[in-house]
């Protein structure tokens, strides 16, 4: 933990998943004439309001894809990274998939919070992504961006097994 006391939660304008916009507002944003033309291989899309999309590759295999934006819900940087990564990967499990890759994008107010604190967040995010889920391969990528932690998971699944 960093030497100076920090409160990551002071940078949150909501609480975790509570930062999401309402389904009604989301429907207004996503409504368009283009939305009527949905790829027939898209098994789960916007209309179901799920946390992940499922795309059928046509050979009995589907891809599950999800992206999470996560504001701090705890003050400890390592714990915040661990919680955000675990939450993102759980969306793949909830859809019946097996995670094969995870990408974390950390948006960070570099002029306000030190890079050392950002490193603690990314270290916390690697643990749940690599050890329990991707034991056989370590391909978790950590990439800096601007303001919030984004975890994106991609998985393959075979329906019924």
Give a description of the structure.
This protein has three helices and six strands. It is α+β, with helices and mostly antiparallel strands and 161 residues long. The protein has a single domain, classed as 60s Ribosomal Protein L30, Chain: A (2-Layer Sandwich), CATH 3.30.1330.10. Helix 2 runs parallel beside helix 3. The longest helix is centred in the C-terminal third of the chain and has 19 residues.
Give me some keywords for this one:
alpha+beta, 60s Ribosomal Protein L30, Chain: A, six-stranded mixed beta sheet, 6 strands, EC 2.7.9.3, metal-binding
SSE arrangement:
Elements (H helix, E strand, L loop, with lengths): L22 H8 L11 E3 L8 E4 L5 E9 L6 H18 L3 E10 L7 H19 L7 E5 L3 E9 L4
């Amino acid at each position: 933990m960093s030497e100076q006391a920090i409160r990551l939660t002071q940078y949150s304008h909501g609480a975790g998943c509570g930062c999401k916009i309402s389904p009604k507002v989301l429907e207004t944003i996503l409504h368009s004439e283009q939305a009527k033309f949905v790829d027939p291989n898209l098994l789960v899309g916007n209309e179901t309001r799920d946390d992940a999309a499922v795309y059928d590759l046509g050979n009995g295999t589907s891809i599950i894809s999800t992206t999470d934006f996560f504001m701090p819900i705890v003050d400890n940087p390592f714990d915040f990274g661990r919680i955000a990564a675990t939450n993102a990967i759980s969306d793949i499990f909830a859809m019946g998939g097996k995670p094969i890759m995870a990408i974390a994008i950390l948006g960070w107010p570099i002029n306000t919070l030190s890079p050392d604190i950002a490193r603690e967040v990314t270290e916390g995010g690697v643990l749940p992504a690599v050890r329990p889920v991707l034991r056989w391969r370590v391909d978790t990528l950590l990439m800096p961006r601007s303001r919030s932690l984004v975890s994106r998971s991609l998985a393959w699944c075979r329906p019924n097994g």
